[in-house]
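Entry for adenosine monophosphate complex. Fields follow.
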Amino acid sequence: MGLKLYDTLTREVRDIFPMDKSSVRFYACGPTVYGPAHVGNFRTFVMQDVFRRVLETSGQSTLHVRNLTDVDDKTIRQSQEEGIKLEDFTAKWTTRFQNDCGLLNLMAPHVEPSAVSHIPEQIILIERLIEKDKAYQAKDGSVYFRVEAFAEYGRLSRLADREITTSDNVREISDEYDRDSAADFALWKARKSEDGENFWDSPWGEGRPGWHIECSAMSMKYLGDSFDLHSGGVDLIFPHHENEIAQSESVTGKTFARHWFHVAHLMVEGQKMSKSLGNLYTLSDLAEKGYQPQEIRYLLLSGNYRQSLNFTFDSLGAARKAISKLTDFASKIDFEYASGSSLKDDFGPFYPVQEALLSDLNTPEALGRLFRLVRELTEAWNRGEFKDESDKVKSLRNGFQSCLDALGLVVKSKSKETIEIPLNIQDLAEKRWQAKVNKSWGEADQLRDELLSLGWIVKDGKEGFELAKSD
Ligand code: AMP
Ligand code: ZN
């Protein structure tokens, strides 16, 4: 049985399979790197991670691309307010984001492209749209996509049913722009004084790309004109993903993404957790209150991704108890958590957990089944049913590991001597891992030496690293 997942475009639960018969190629809209990501953002990133983990623990390889939005109104405005060059400003928040991802045990994407590093690719797409008369340059020098030239516009978000007009295209609206139709959205924004030094040359003069074209260019560059799945939080359905479909399909004439996966919001007292509402919590806010990243990850998994989830400290408390029960079970079966191992389809007695995950990523059901099995297997263990049966014990431990791998939870046995890793050491090691992922070998070596001088050795596995004391 393979993964079945709800598709926003067709409103159906559909099979996930790789169109090239090899890897499931998928794109995740990444963070806007202008401040720390909050745990609402991480609900979406954690569910994208679970999507990948569930595929990989069922033997399906993946190609995961997640971008960094490092040029848009917000990054430019904020970097200028702080008087820092855009690239230095976004580098700082990118590192913070990647560290937080490491703490939450998110698998690093195979490719993590940034918008600023892909300006030529975006310009080429815009040129092709103009050639096809799907886009035009307006009097203000900006280039707009002609929405009426794409008959399918609005299919993803059911625009016609929702009785909203395309002028809800808020992230693009600005009175200074001079469009043929209010619905048209910017592909290229002509340079304005408030952009400061943040502009690039183009056939239409100096300016910068619009947000939507960034994701079309980066996804198609690394995944091809057509790929298996595209994803983000539900707020991205309109206009961002609608616009991505329109501009990409207008260029290629092919289906852009075959499947659309959207995660409902994390809420606080009935409102979406968001920076603009000021009701957010970051990982470090919660760390200051004594909560561990694994407890936060557990909380984010505790609701079905198709329904909004309320963030409360009671549910964080419940997550803490749940993790502690799993730790007790790990200790009972003398379980050794294998980090950095490649993910395996070895659920054994825990097969019902995998089944729930394959059924539209039903994480609350999977967790419910995990706890039922943990209770039953603990009782069986206490009755002596696992005594001297090495194969049975092995399959129990492997099955537990597969569950943790699929959910991305890290649970270690208490009986093993656990080494406390100081936060600054963990941070340095995360930074080094990211430098390696980004192929910044010099920086990675320097960080390894720094860790060594602080008394820690890093050992690399395929999916991550381990830290050990050097003495
Ligand atoms: P941003 O950094 O604003 O571009 O958002 C990064 C990702 O987080 C996008 O996929 C958003 O849709 C998602 N997101 C933003 N707020 C929330 C929330 N409260 N709950 C779940 N996902 C969110
Ligand atoms: Zn995007």
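NOTE: The longest strand covers residues 23-28.
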